[in-house]
Structures are given as structure tokens and as C-alpha cells.
Queue: 2 jobs
Job 1
Amino acid sequence: MAPVTVGLSINIGEKRYPGHAGAKTVTALRDLQARIAPSEFCVITGPSGCGKTTLLNIIAGIDHDFAGALSFAPPDRGAPRIGYVFQSPRLLPWRTVRENVALVRPRHADRTELEGLLTDVGVADMADAYPAQLSGGMTRRVALARAFAIAPDLLLMDEPFLSLDAAAADRLRSLLLRLVSTRPATVLFVTHDLAEAVELADRILVLSPSPGRVVAEMPIVLPRDGRRDRDTLAALQDGLARLADHPIEPPNTAKIAFSRPNSPHRTHK
Amino acid sequence: MARFPAALGERVASLLVALAAWEAAARIAQSRLFPGPGSVLATLADEALHGELLHDLGATLARVAIAFTLAMAVGTVVGIAMARSRTIDTLLDSGVVLLLNLPALVIAVLLYIWLGLTEVAAIGAVTLSKLPTVVVTLREGARTLDRDLGDMAKSFHFGHWRTFRHVILPQLSPFFLVASRTGLALIWKIVLVVELLGRPDGIGYAIQVFFQLFDVRRLIAYALAFVAVMLAVEWGVLQPLERRLARWRR
């Protein structure tokens, strides 16, 4: 069966958090529109507190209290399966690695498939350990395995590699790209690390400060191998900042005129 | 596990010290009203084999078991409900506080007056004395439930049963254990008072009879048998359960 992923069109009029006990009502999102194509790897970035997590929670169905609509394409497909990788791993500490991943699957789901997934993310040796016995990188791998365990149509990722050291985050990004290439899914990935955004994205959406809406978007059409170059990063960042009309913290001081690569092909490697 | 024999040794040693002190005190006192451990243990064996001890012990343990189960079950449900709903919390809070501060003796006397000297009144009194502490403990536990894990369960469509079994229950288990511990200790004590007031059998009833006869030997023998069972439950059931539930902690 050829894997078919879903597209998503987001149209949020307004999302407010009611103020409790004298606190003021906060508007987290306003007039946020975006379309995500099937199989697209879309990275969402923006200043902290601009509603990125709120947006993912709405898409995940955790938060229903908003004005607006989400529609998934193709429409005749039924409810999409959505895998969510949270900012902290959110594993059940009282369940083993294997149990944590198995719990999101139907009770009689194929066991060999599960073991294959645990092997693919590199936690098969730790399958009987409890999360507290694992390193930070390992718990992120388990969280990744859990999200892929439901064979997601749509994968939501909320700064999933935050607070890992650079080398570990790097390995996990490669792992993610490998997983997405063999188990296709549409990905919505939130980060405020521009280098990470550029490395992963087919397209970057930039949100405004709160209340968040999309203020800029930029397709990244470079082949993935060439994206880690300092000058390229600086140029992309400069361009994004100009598009978003607010500055993004620079990783270095090199200033290179922004130019858009002309190759129209997205390169997946 | 390797430490267990050492722990057992220490326990036996401390028990021997207590017995020796008791024996010494009894020899100094030289009184029928202060028997030594030897004669008490002999009485204990004799009562178990030929007397009413096992019958009384069984009756008391049955009351403890029923009251404990009822209080834990009802208390858990009410406690969780109060933590989840402001309305239920507001409606029931005064009742819980009242019950918490009402002496068990008063509850027992009132129930005996209203329901007669019946088994229902006895078990009801013990249950009601224990209930509010379970409610308060479990309410506290249910209030601290991790929202992040709840959201996780929701986003992965766990459903009610999986969420309860794998997300909520494990978070409540420490509170459940605390409630069991303190609850059992409380029930042991209350149940004797209730039996003494209005039951024709059980350890509490026996204690009252021995009190009237000034039969200290049998009084202590009965009390010891009761304490032994309590310790067996603590070491044989509660502590292993606690270790099992805490397996995942590091």
C-alpha cells in the first residue's frame, strides 16, 4: 500500500486564554492562516510566547477552545492519526520503554513491528528499562518512537530536541530525517533555533509576537547536505528577518546578501 | 535483597531486648497483675488451641477487612470526585471536615443508638471514622495529577480506561498507600472500642471481659495476638506492595 500522508489547512480566527482570578485575558493567536502540503516538512518559528505550542495543541485536539477551523486533506480520509512529540518527553515514568511505546497502539497490534521500531530509533537494548534510567537523548528517542508507533499521518513536534547537547541533538535530527524518509508523514516542527529550522525544513513559517499569526514564509530548496554552511545560514536568516520585519538573533556576524537558490526541486536525502 | 537477613537479625535482636526488659520488670514486680512473657506466651498458645482466641480474632479481622475496604473504596471515589469538580468539593467539604473532627467514640455511640447494637452499626462506625482521612488524602493526590501526562494521553487517544489504569492510578498509588497505612493503624484501634461498646465477640469484647475479671495475663495475650496479625499485614502485604509500586523509581 502506497503511503498517503495528509495535508492540513489551518484557519484560526482567535485563541484566547481566559484570565483567572483577576488575571487578564491573553490572546495567544489571531488570524492565523497556513496550509501544509501532504508530506511537507514545515518548520514553525517565532519569538517565545508567540503561541507555537498553543497552535500544536489545537491541531493535536488537546485544546478545543478556539475560534476557527482546521481541515485535513484529502477530506474523505477520516480522522488523521496525529503523533505528538512534546517539548519534554512526557513518558510514563512507571512504565518501561516498551510499554510506553506499546500503550499508544491498539491492544492487539503487531509486536514485531513494535520491536522493529524500537530497533530503528536505537532503544531496543533499553526496552525493559524505566525512563528514569535513561539519558536525556534516550528519552527523546523513546518519545520519537512513541509518535511513530501509531504510523502517524501528521507529526507534531514542539522543540523536541531542546536542552540536549549539540552532538545529541544532531544525531536525533538525522534520526528524524531517516525515520521520515522510511515512514512518510507530514511534519509540523516548532523550533526557535534557526540552524535547526534550516536543516530540517521544506518550508519555514515565521510567527509574529503574541498574538501569533504567520508573518513570513520561506521555502528552503537547498539540498539538505549544503544547509549547514555558516554563510548560507546567515544569508537565510537575514532574509527571514527582513521578511518577518523583526530581527532574529544572529548566530554569527557575517552579512551576506540574501539570494534565493533557483533550483525548484526539493531534495530529500 | 541482600540486606534482608541483616535487617531480620536487627529486628530479632531488638525484640529480644524488649522481652528481656519485660521479664526483668515482671520479676521485680512479683504481681499477678504484671505477668512475665513466659506465662503470657503460654496463655496465648493455650487460648489459641482451647479457648476463644481464634474466634474473637477472626471476628475482629473480618470487621477490619470490611470497614477498611469500604472506607478505601468510597473514600477514593469521593476524594477523586472532589478534586475534579469544584461543585462536589464545595458541597461535601463541610461534611468531611465535620467527620474528620468527630471522635470515633461519638460516631460509634450514635450509630448504636440509631441502628441498635448490630453488626451494621459497628462496621458503619469504623468505616465512617476512617472515611474522611481517605477522602482528604486522595483528594490531595488527585489535585496534583500531572496535566502534561493527561494531555499526552488525550493526544494519543488513550481513552478513559487506559488513561485511568496507566496515567492516573500510578500517580495516585503513593497517596493510596499512605491512606492504607494510616487507615489500617486507625481502624485497628477504633474497632476494639466499637466491639467493647456493643458486640458479643471480637478482641475488643474479650478485652472488656478480662478487664472486669482483672485477668491481665489473658488480656495481654489477646492484645499480643492482635498486634502480631497487624505486623504480619504490614510486613507481608503493605511493605511488599510499596516496593512493587516504587519499582520504577530511581
Job 2
Amino acid sequence: MTITVLKPGLLTTIQDLGRHGHMAIGVGRAGPMDATSHRLANALVGNDPSAASLEASLLGPRLRFDADACIALTGAPFPARLDGVSLPMWRAHPVAAGQVLDMGAARRGARACLAVAGGFATHAVLGSRATDIHAHLGPFGGRPLATGDELPIAAMRRRNAASWSLDPRPWFDPDPERPIRLIPGTHSDHLDAASRSALFNTGFRITADSNRTGFRLDGPRLALSAPLETVSEPVTFGTLQLPPGGQPIVLMAEHPTTGGYPRIGQVAAVDLPRLAQRPPGARVCFQSIGHDEAEARYLEYQRTLALLIDRIARRLAG
Amino acid sequence: MIAAPEPSRPVAEPLGETTLLLRFGTRLDAAVNARVHHAAALLRVAALRGLSDIVPAYASLALHYDPGAWSRPSGAAWRQFADAVGAVLEAPAVAQPAPARTVTVPVCYGGAHGPDIDIVARHCGLSVQAVADRHAAGAYTVAMLGFAPGFPYLLGLDPALAVPRRSDPRLRVAAGSVAIGGVQTGIYPTGLPGGWHLIGRTPLRLFEVDGDPPCPLAAGDQVRFRPITAREFEAGADR
């Protein structure tokens, strides 16, 4: 069973929950930018959250199904059409062999997730099907999808479509004015007074050269009160780094494992899916949050999401 | 009475909700780096629940974990986890950690394989041969792997060989290039952009996804370089 890529879109990659256990040799996790959309799309077609899905960015792909399938789309609203017929998102749909899915361009937000029952069954590399573009790891040598690619699909577990759909709220929220919460970083206290104030009171814009590795933020130039000697330390998804130019960078899903720039903040994990849905040019305003509160909100978010995924699974089974 | 040595107690600091950073120091220092590797070895054996990645760096160690596995009705999960980590590091050692492995890396110095060795020689006021000799004479430790899969940052460079990074980084450095950047030396495992000065090249493959293990070098390993001729390089690369 395969799906053929007729047009790849702007940046379409296969992603699963990421490459775990190899960071000590410099292999990052990669994985979806918006992990919530990935998990819910898989849930809607009866897959485990660890199954591989497609992540489409801004301009989605055109795909031909070479066998019957069951699919679900989540994330940013895309005007998807199946053989020309509008395809609502956040629900499971049957697809017949030969049908063509055209995802179109995102109306708001940045990324959508396409899951197919059974999951994309490309060869796993270091235990994962996540595409790591910079390290050239994962499906198709770690590159984004290209015209003519044939995507293998694992045997389907269920094919009947559901007659119900999920409410995207609160799982998708593209509101550009809602602040992104930021935990102070190791070197926050080294910012000069003006920069400390500017970080939280002035907005930034995501620059055009932002990608899955990081979002570069254009806005007030930030500066340290004195030069700081730093050695490379581990970094993670959401780490806000300050390179010498004064333009901060938020590390995203394809972040390196270590970095040498001062760390002036850490995006609260609950807000990473929202940040990941902001396209280049979108505004980002930060709001300070303490670590313990951020952790409590993250645990609550994960519990709520797990309960929802469990309810979906029971509904599919019943 | 002789006091027992203080247990090496790092500072624990959360790096987001799913990572705990242990900091042993703030500088490039072989003794601090050795404590990082010792702690990493203890934590690998302890296999704490929810812990998926242990990432050693020069002076710090990251633990990527699932806070859901450490959540309690009261108190932050990261503190529970940090306490468990502290207990592992402070427990009396039941066994000595295995001695560090020594890996010998063959290098063809200079010529087409080390196009920057002349620049390094001029900067350091040494002959090209002296640069190669001094580099090959060093005893190195893999301080950490990072930047790209399999890239080893090595501590132990002869200070006489320190040279600032290139002002014009290369867009692609040949796989296996042995290079100097500041007071560090390292090896580009795959074709990568890079700003370090290239002094030689090894035919050893430093990262192969299907290899077991994918990297012949691990953080904490000792490394020696063995000079080889261009002919030996070609023979090794053909393997």
C-alpha cells in the first residue's frame, strides 16, 4: 500500500514522536513541530501516538492514494479537497484507491498533520521515522518529500469513517496576540535592564529565515550587561538563545543537542504547539511564568490530552 | 582523622519541563569534564524511570525525562526527579565505573587532506611537521559529542596549537576532517559546514546510522591520533 506524492508542497516531512536515546552522540529528536496535532490525528484514525504522520507547512502537498485508506487532518486550517470535494479537518475520512487529496495553503497558522490508519511505514532510522533535515536522517535520507515519492502505509487497522469530529479548541489556537509564556533562563539575569524589560514588554516578529530548527525573532536588539563566557551546554525544544547580534532564537523541534549561546529563557512546553503554529512574519509576545507553574500546567495539559485520546480510542472501539 | 572527599555535588537546574541540567562547573576543564562522565555513567546504570536521554557536555549534563513519571499531589515533579538523581550520585559506589576506553584514530596530516595546516603552522610559529607531530602526540578526551551526529569535541590540545576559527567558514568540510577551533580539536564525521582549521583527515567512519554502535567514539573515551600516509588513507577509505 502506498501514497504517491504528486506535488510535495512547501515543506512536507514524515514525523513520529522523535528519535529518542541518541542525543549523547549528537543525534537530536526532530519529530513534529506541533506534537498535539500529531497525536490527535493519529488518535482519530485509531493509531498509536507513536505512528508516523505527515507534517505539512504553509502550502500542503497533493497526494494520490494507491489503495483504500482512512485519514484524518488536524492542526492549522487547510482547505483540503479529496477529488475536488471539501474535506473537513479533525475527523476520520475513508479514502478510495485512486483518489487525490489536495491540501491547499494554510488559511491561518502554519502546519497541519495528516495521519493515515496504520501509519507511514518508512524504514526506521535509529529507532524513529522522524525526518531530521539537517542531519540527513530519517525517511528519504532526511529530506522533505519530493514529487514522485511513494510513501508506504502499514496494514490498516480500521477503515470505517467516524460520523463525529473533534473540536479543535483548545488544541489549535492561532491567535497571534495571545502571549507565549516564557520561563526565565540560566542567563536571564545577565541581560541589561533595558533588554530585560524589552523581552517581556515589546513584541517580536518571526523572521522569514525561520525553520524547523529555530525561529529567529526580529524586534528590539537584546544585550547582556557584560560579556559572558559560556561553554557549550545542552539545549532543548523551546530554549531561547541570544547570539552576539542581539536577535534571539527559539530552538524548535529540530534543535541541536547542545549550544554555546547564552540562554535567556525557555518557552513553556504547553505553549510550544501554539508557537509552532505561527508562520514567518507572525508576532510573538512573551509573558513571564515561573518554572513550577509551567510544569503544573504542562502536566495538566498532558493529562487532559491523554484522557481525550483514550476517549477517542474507546469511541472507535465501541 | 582524614576527611572523606566531598561527594561531587552538581547544581541541578530545570531546562524546561522535561529536562534537568546538572552543572559541574562553567569552564573548559578536564577535571570538571571527568566528573560529568562519571555522573553520566552512574545515571546510565541507575536507569531512573522516565529518563530517555543522558547528554554529557563540557561542564554539564542534561537529563531528558518525562515529568509525568515523577508527578506527586504536592511538590514539583522536577524536584522529585532531582532528589532521585542526587541520591544516585551520592550513593556509595558499589562498583568502580569501567575505565575509559582508548580509541586510536589514524590521520593523514597536511596536503590535500589538511588544507589549513600551513595557516596553523604560520599562526603558531611552527613548521608544518611540528604541527602534525604535536597534534599526534597529544592525549585527548572526548568531552562531548554535539553540533552534528558523531562530532567529537576533544579536550587535550597542546596550547601551542590553538588557533582562532576561520573568518570565512566553509560551506562543506570533507567527512573525516580533523580540525582545530580555538583551544579545541575535533573531527567532522560527515560533510558539514565548518569554521575550524583543517589539518588532516581520517578514513575512520565516525557516524554510520546502521552501525552498531553508530559512533565508534563515546563521550568520555580517550583518543590518540596515529599519523598515516596519503596511501594508507586511500587504502583505509576504500574499505
